[in-house]
Amino acid sequence: MQVSSNIDEILNLRTLEDRLPALREQYQSAQPYAHIAIDDVLTAPALAGAYSDFAKLDPTDWTNYLHVNERKFANKKPETWGTTLREIQAALSTPRFLSFLSQLTGFEALLPDPTLDGGGLHRTLRGAHLNIHADFTAHHTNRHWRRRVNLLLYLNPEWHDDWGGDLQIWDRDVSACQAKVAPLGNRIFLFSTDEHSFHGHPEPLNCPEGVARQSMALYYFTEEAHPLVKPTDYRARPGDGVKRLWIYLDKKALALYDVVKRRFKLSDKAVSNLLGKFSRKKP
Questions:
Q1: Which residues contact 204 (CB under 8 A, 6 or more apart)?
Q2: What 3-state DSSP class applies to 206?
Q3: DSSP letters spanning 150-203
Q4: CATH assignment of the domain containing 186
Q5: 156-190, pLDDT tens digit by residue?
Q6: Domain with 32 in it
Q7: In the chain, how many domains are there?
Q8: In this structure, is residue 126 part of a structural domain?
Q9: Contact 179, 186 (CB under 8 A)
Q10: Helix-strand-coil percent breakdown of the chain, rounded to 5?
Q11: CB 205 within 8 A of CB 213
Q12: Confidence of residue 257 (pLDDT cuts 50, 70, 90)
């Protein structure tokens, strides 16, 4: 989709471009891997439109990911989104934004993903979670695409500290949480993704019934002859106790699905049903 209006009517990109040297230093010096949270990315009209669009989404257009390691819903069909959400996705895929992103992260020739492999709109409800993990490293259908940068745009009109849901940043050994990022509305969280960029929000959400943790997830790739191919790697935290076994078994089931999905191009909806059955066997 083309951006139907000027990009500056959607994103506060001029401000980000003016701040680029400082943002780049902050991003590339962050530990345990390169990351940054940036607030007020959308203009006020775009933010209001995004909230309105999110509230109008048809519940039947969501795919469930309800298994041991995550409990969320996703919509990767922009044709079902409202106009503002589609324009935001398009703006975050323009050459101008990609140039900003390349200069920020150090990855040249970044590619947006129109298929939203693993991305799209995400909703997580009360009591749900996403265990600590490092994301899959290569695109499932574009076999020369290596995943390099994750962008999470939080679209929560209201969020309180006691609701939980902070994105936790863990070290490469998954021995300690190094930082937390609250999912505040109009905040983007950007990070370089590889087999060691562990993150998640593993504690059950404590938001009120009827409230969800909402975001738009976009992933950016580089083209390589032989990209590293690894499935999502879920890890238990110190102190997870007996849950470690279920986290491990679910990870293995997901890794098998990853192989099958790449070979036979299965839909995520098909596997969500399968993994949901596995989850329900958990005592």
A1: 126, 127, 128, 129, 164
A2: coil
A3: EEEEE--S---GGG--PEEEE-TTSSSEEEEE---TTEEEEEE-STT--EEE-S
A4: 2.60.120.620
A5: 999 999 999 999 999 999 999 999 999 999 999 99
A6: 7-277
A7: 1
A8: yes
A9: no
A10: 35, 25, 40
A11: yes
A12: confident
